[in-house]
Amino acid sequence: MLSALLSGPPLSVAELALATLLSKPTATQSLRRLGALDLMMPAGTAAGRSGPHAQLYAAGSGIGVAAAVSVEQERIRIEVLTAQGDVVERSEVRRGSGAATAQIEKALLRRSTRDQIKAMVIGMPGSFDALADRVRFADELRGWQRPGITARLEAAIGATVRIENDAKLAALAEQASGSGEGLESMALLWCGEGVASAAVIGGQVVRGVGGAAGEIGDLPTADGRTGQDLLGADAVAEMTSAETDPEAAQMRLARRYAAVARPLVAVLDPQALVLAGPTAEAGGGELAEAVQRAIADLALHPVPVRIAHHSGRGVIEGAGLAARELLRASTLDRVGPKEQ
Question: What SUPFAM superfamilies does the record point to (predicted)?
Answer without folding.
Answer: Actin-like ATPase domain
